[in-house]
Design goal:
200 residues; mainly beta; 2 helices; 12% helix; 38% strand
């Protein structure tokens, strides 16, 4: 197995070539259509749009840029995956950027972002409330209560948050406080799709 180069805050293999996610804060909002999302930067500009392809044998979730150019695709690793591995593939290079791996323990919504070649942990996204996570899986009305997550680097240090908002449609803010030790674009892209994957 080929060793993956260590993460570098400059150009690196975890960058997504089609987008430049340089802000520290992004707003993600679900539209009236189920599992269709828009991502805005701190200036209010749409930088990403995503819509899950329905009736596919494998879950597929393509994203486009604010200019409607192909950005990246998230695809489940197995047929009809409810949870498990999801790969983010760069539309510009057709290369796998990262893999998302869900922790299935007791309905807790924890996700690990891994190197697609080595399986090395790059970052972790963890729910702040185990009780709310369990309720969101067991009680449909609990999805109206916004969930909150923390983002950690590979060493377990806190580097950001995902804060849900009270809304008829899912809306939340993704903020990265210190992303020097994580692949920022891949982490933000992962955070933006968690809501859709968890509501499967």
């Amino acid at each position: 197995m080929t060793e993956h180069p260590p993460f570098d805050s400059g150009t690196n293999s975890y960058d997504i070539s089609t987008v430049d996610l340089t802000d520290d804060r992004y707003e993600v909002k679900q539209s009236a259509i189920r599992n269709k999302y828009a991502v805005r930067d701190s200036a209010g500009n749409v930088v990403l749009r995503g819509k899950q392809k329905m009736f596919k044998m494998k879950e597929e979730f393509p994203f486009v840029t604010g200019d409607d150019e192909d950005a990246f695709t998230v695809k489940a690793g197995g047929i009809m995956d409810v949870a498990g591995n999801y790969t983010i593939t760069d539309a510009g290079t057709n290369q796998e950027v990262v893999v998302l791996d869900e922790d299935l323990s007791l309905f807790v919504e924890n996700w690990t972002i891994r190197d697609p070649n080595t399986g090395e942990t790059l970052a972790t996204i963890r729910s702040k409330s185990k009780l709310l996570s369990a309720l969101r899986h067991l009680v449909s009305g609990a999805n109206l209560i916004p969930n909150k997550y923390e983002i950690f680097d590979a060493d377990g240090d806190h580097v950001g948050d995902i804060e849900g908002k009270f809304s008829l449609r899912d809306a939340y803010t993704v903020s990265i406080d210190d992303a020097s030790d994580v692949p920022k674009e891949a982490v933000i892209a992962s955070a933006c799709i968690l809501d859709a994957l968890e509501n499967e």
